[in-house]
Amino acid sequence: MTAAVPSLFSAVSVDYRALAPVLIVFVGAMVGVLVGAFVPRARRHVIQLVLALVTLVAALLTLVLATVGHSAKTVGGSVVVDGPAMYLEGLLLVIAILAVLTFGERWGGYEADAFTPMGAATPGSPQEAAATRAGFTTSEVFPLALLATAGMMLFTSANDLITLFISLEVLSLPLYILTGLARRRRLLSQEASLKYFLLGAFSSAFLLFGSALLYGYAGTVDYKGIAAAIVAGGSAYEPLLLPGILLVLVGLLFKIGAAPFQMWTPDVYQGAPTPVTGFMAAGTKAAAFGAILRFGYVGIEAARWDWRWPVIVIAALTMVVGAVLSVTQTDMKRLLAYSSIAHAGFLLVGVLGFSKAGISGVLFYLTAYALSTVAAFAIVGMVRENGAEASHLSQWAGLGKKHPVVAGTFALLLLAFAGIPLTSGFTAKFAAFAPAVTSGGRAGIALVVLAVLCSAVTAFVYIRVIVLMYFTEVAPSEVEALMPSALTTVVVTFGAAATVILGVYPGPVLDLAANAAQFLR
Amino acid sequence: MTSPYVAVLIMVALGLAFAVVAVGLSAVIGPKTYNRAKLEAYECGIQPTPRAASGGRFPVKYYLPAMLFIIFDIESVFLYPFAVAFNQMGLFALIEMVLFIATVFVAYAYVWRRGGLEWD
Question: What chain A residue is nearest to B11 in terms of C-alpha separation?
Answer without folding.
Answer: A243
